[in-house]
Design goal:
By secondary structure, the protein is α+β, with helices and mostly antiparallel strands. It contains seven helices and eight strands. Helix 1 packs antiparallel against helix 4, helix 1 crosses helix 5 and helix 3 (63-74) packs across helix 4.
């Protein structure tokens, strides 16, 4: 549970810009298709299609805010990380010094969606398995996960289970794809400065 006021949502809505893109084939689509066919892998999700929504995190501890913003962008809404961070902070779920409470994101996203009339709903899922994630990605669901990024920096051949996804985490990312061999693609927000 978090505290909120309609003023917090109004501020966020005033910062919202609806996004629209012309449909353009990704320059990577041929590579993606060739690799998928060459290795006989089915890709669940659309990692290449999500590239246009990538946005680096603005602050050291804002990875969950940045990932949430990327997901909203993917749904066609651009609140901007700064406005979303302010809203999360006013809800009491984000602190720039310590990060975001991962178990409070669901309620915050749902309040934002309900108040602004967005056709989306967040659901916290614990104890998921790879098959559930593949099915969700095939349904065009957007997935925010937590992982231990220090392990990812040290070994690029790790599985999601080995990365210790929520609740034992330190970094939030958007899962954008999983292949049949359980390789995965993530939108990994990082700070540029």
């Amino acid at each position: 549970s978090f505290s909120h006021s309609d003023d917090n949502i109004d501020t966020l809505l005033n910062s919202h810009n609806e996004l629209s893109w012309d449909t353009v084939d990704s320059p990577y689509s041929n590579i993606y298709d060739n690799l998928s066919h060459q290795f006989g892998l089915e890709i669940h999700g659309d990692p290449l299609g999500e590239i246009v929504n990538f946005d680096p995190q603005d602050e050291t501890k804002s990875c969950a805010v940045a990932s949430t913003n990327m997901i909203f962008n993917s749904l066609g809404y651009d609140f901007g990380e700064h406005a979303l961070a302010d809203t999360f902070e006013q809800f009491g779920i984000y602190d720039p010094m310590s990060g975001t409470d991962p178990h409070a994101i669901e309620a915050a996203i749902n309040k934002i969606a309900e108040t602004s009339g967005l056709d989306c709903r967040a659901t916290e899922i614990n104890g998921f398995n790879i098959e559930q994630l593949k099915t969700s990605l095939d349904s065009d669901d957007k997935i925010l996960i937590g992982l231990n990024s220090s392990k990812l920096y040290n070994d690029y051949n790790m599985t999601l289970e080995e990365l210790n996804y929520m609740p034992i985490t330190g970094h939030a990312v958007q899962l954008t794809g999983i292949s049949d061999d359980e390789s995965f693609a993530i939108a990994f927000p990082f700070i540029l400065h």
